[in-house]
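Let us work through a complete example step by step.
Step 1: write down the sequence.
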Amino acid sequence: MFVMAQSFAEMALRRDDKWEVYFMHSYQFMLGGSDENYTHADERILFIYNSIVVPIVMLNLIITIIAEEFVKAQDRIAVADVRESLDMVREVSRFFAYFSDKAKPRYIHWIST
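Step 2: predict the structure and record it as tokens.
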């Protein structure tokens, strides 16, 4: 969406090529490449504006992706904690069952939240 807005802004300033050319130039600019010579003052202002806004948009995008993955990891952590607690209970009960006499089995019951 931002690439399209940037390409329309460039198209409004120059009006000499097709929209696809401006779109490709804007896309390349978003990826960090710029081989254009900005001769007019309004083109330089657009370049400076885009040089400030594009990194902010990209950082916002990566922060959003990381935040979503963090929420997913937090949802999975409760299940992993309970599973690990039950594995420890099973391991301890096997240890005590091995050393106890066979006639009287003993059990450890551990409930954790």
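Step 3: interpret the result. Residues 33 and 107 are 67 Å apart (CA to CA).
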